[in-house]
Amino acid sequence: MAQVLRAAGAQVRLVGKHEQHLSRVRERGIETILLDDWDRTPAGLVVEATGTARGVELGLAATRPRGTLVIKSTVADRVSLDFARSWSTSSRSSAAGAGRSEPALAALASNQVQVRSLVDARVSLEHAVEAVALAARPGTLKVLLEMP
Question: What domains appear along the chain, each with residue ranges and CATH number?
């Protein structure tokens, strides 16, 4: 998502917990910062994509008054939010689903968005159980199943 926003002309700052993950997009010219070093300065547009309840809470806190929070996470846990803060500052939130595939394919074909560095492993379909276990390990971004 950071690559897509940058390709669209946005100034992007990606906040994350893992240096090894941040380095993958920093190579694409995207500003990155570790969560522990983040100054918590609110932004006008925040895209939350951690997949965690805490990430959604931080996303709301990181959205400036009258700003927009886009929640691009699928969070399995319950999320408890202080919407009084959101409403009192006139921020708005939206959930983002999958979009049209044509622009995404064009961005991939033109190398505006590069995803190879986000893949940690390729595993044959016959080893799908091992692939799921690998994908569940902390620090793993993406595991691809290869079909025969």
Answer: 2-114 (3.40.50.720), 117-148 (no CATH)
